[in-house]
Amino acid sequence: MLLLLVSLAVFAPLISRYQPAAQNLADILRPSSANHWLGTDQLGRDLFTRLIYAARTDLRIMILAEILPFCTGIFLGMLAGYYGKWIDALVTLMTNTLIAFPFYLIVIVVAFASGAGERGIYITFALVGWIVFARVVKGLSASLRKQEWVASAKVLGLPDSRILLFHILPNVLPQAIVVLMTDMVGLLVAIVTLGYLGIGIAPPTPDWGTMISEGQTFIYSKWWLSTIPGFAVVYTGIALSLIGDGLADLWRRK
Amino acid sequence: MKMHMLNKRRIFRKGILSNRAAGHTAATVSISILSALLKAMATVACIIVAVFFIIRIVPGDPVKMILGEHASPSEIIQMRHSLGLDLPLGQQFVRFLHHLFMYGDTGTSIIYNVSTRTLIAERTPVTLLLIVMAIAITIVVAVLLAMIAATHKDGLVDHLIRIFPTITLGMPVFWVGLLLILVFGVWLHWFPVGGTSGGLFGTLYSLTLPAITVAFSQIPSLVRSLRAQLLDVLGSDFVVTLKAAGIPNRVILFRHVLRNASIPTLMLLGVNVSYLIGGTLVIEQVFGLKGIGSLLFSAISSRDFPVIQGIALYCAVAVVLINLFIEILSGYLDPRLKGDD
Fold first, then answer.
1. What pTM, to 2 d.p., does this model score?
2. Best of B44, B69, B164, B178 to disrupt the A interface by mutation (most A CBs within 10 Å)?
3. Which residues 198-257 of B are in CB contact (within 8 Å) with A?
4. Considering CB atoms only, which of A99, A114, A188 is closest to B170?
5. Which domains does chain A show, CATH number per domain?
6. Do A114 and B60 touch (CB under 8 A)?
7. Which own/partner contact pairs does B188-195 have at CB distance under 8 Å and 24+ positions apart?
8. Cα Rg for chain B, rounded, in angstroms?
9. Which end of chain B has fewer CB atoms < 10 Å from its terminal CB, N or C?
10. Do B166 and A242 touch (CB under 8 A)?
């Protein structure tokens, strides 16, 4: 499923005959036809073209924005779980504080304060995205620490950094990756929501969120303009969570 | 009859309280409440610090944002001074704290020139009502669906409910709202498509669709958790005992199983409250409701940062308080939870 989506996104220029920003004011708000599979929007842009170009933008930002929080989350989670005590207390306090802010509130405020657009999205998720990973990894590494082989590794005189990197990390990574899949869905939804609210990706760059908000104006007559981009988001979400479920099953069986 | 009731009580007690250790007196309960209270206070303190610094650490100058890129330097200096932004950071923080504890707000709105507390208080009723309605719908629907799924395991509803979270995970809240507007507002004309109409009934009526939208985002995960808990409790020894004692299934399900299964789900709801409030803010925008969400967005577009700080602060503190309440409540519902820390 994801493969189809990614290849649509990657080969977008080959698949579509139109440019995503190309306007054709003679052909505005057309319903589906042979020339325009999903019709055209209020500026005569081909909806299908914009849809697959938006997949390019949104998927790229989704993956890039997830890298930093994924790494910091695992790092802090491992430290907190392995050492416990004050590091744990500090990380817990930080997560509790950030979690208290409603997710969309903090996303909206930080994205706005750091300037709307792609950069704002990266900063926002670098700031708030690590919590999920830190929590999962913290619990896992705290339970790993108590196991015998970690204790014996310590007795053998292995430095903490070695134990963390070569023994704890490989054990927490699978779970973190499963979480990553679901978290990416949430991130994608957040990117799209920011776009919808006008503080995400700025037009004319195609993005599913801005497409939905532009289409909302025509909800009475041209309902497909705002609903179809949403289905693209849902489709991506299902694909990602199925991968997550699949990976979880695979690792559980091992 | 009386004997029967008594027996039932005893069996029920055994079920829920069997693990209760001997040392759990009222003193330990109040100590754990105290520790929950202390934790909540530490979090609130951090929230206050975060709200103060969030505007200052992220790149971007609020004064430049208010005045625009082409403001003259003297204007900028004057604005800085009137907002107190020219003071050293420590002094600013003291002023911020002073204001917070004296007036309970985050300063005066730059645009409306009134206290942020007043502004937010004006907008609270709509948002609060929406949240309460959403939670009510969430709980009713989640309990119903989870019960059907758990009592008819591997039935059609059960299967649907298990697939459901996978599908809804990727649904943006605002898009669900749009779909509901389209179907129930535009096509079926059952509900108004935006704003609130007068009177209590009118308000409730126009908040129904937004509340369903917000609830929709919460239901899948709650149903999944509640279903798992219900199945867990249904398989436990005390339920088998109750059944053997000849107590009707309906009574067992509602009085005993649901109570035991509700605790972890209640905690999940506590975690989700933060998402629920965030979703509500976004949904207000979709339905054109004059609540805190629309205040937030107008404050954002006019760069009114004291208002933004105020909303962030109040919402976060509300989340902490709700979680504190849930923690204490689940302590009463299940005494086993006490003393775990």
1. 0.76
2. B178
3. none
4. A188
5. 47-253 (1.10.3720.10)
6. yes
7. B193/B287, B194/B287, B194/B288, B194/B289, B195/B287, B195/B288, B195/B289, B195/B290
8. 25
9. N
10. yes
Query: Which two tokens mark A126?
Result: 């670098």
Query: Do B196 and B202 meet the contact criterion of CB atoms below 8 Å apart?
Result: yes
Residue B6 burial by Cβ neighbours in a 10 Å radius (0-12, 13-18, 19+)? exposed
Which CATH number does B2-55+117-338 carry?
A: 1.10.3720.10
Beta bridge partners of B108: B115
Give the model confidence (pLDDT) of A133-152 as tens digits. 888 888 888 777 777 777 77
- Terminal CA-to-CA distance of chain B, rounded, Å? 42
User: Tokens 């009137």 sit at which residue?
Assistant: B82
DSSP 8-state assignment for residue B246: T
8 Å CB contact between B206 and B129: no
Q: Is the dihedral of CA B148, B150, B152, B158 positive or negative?
A: positive
Quickly list H helices, B152-198: 156-168, 173-180
- Using a CB-CB distance cutoff of 8 angstroms, which residues of chain A are in contact with residue B173? 189, 193
Q: What's the Cα-to-Cα distance from B225 to each of A54, A236, B161, B229, B268, rounded to whole Å? A: 34, 24, 11, 6, 8
HSE-up of residue A161 (Cα within 13 Å, Cβ side): 0
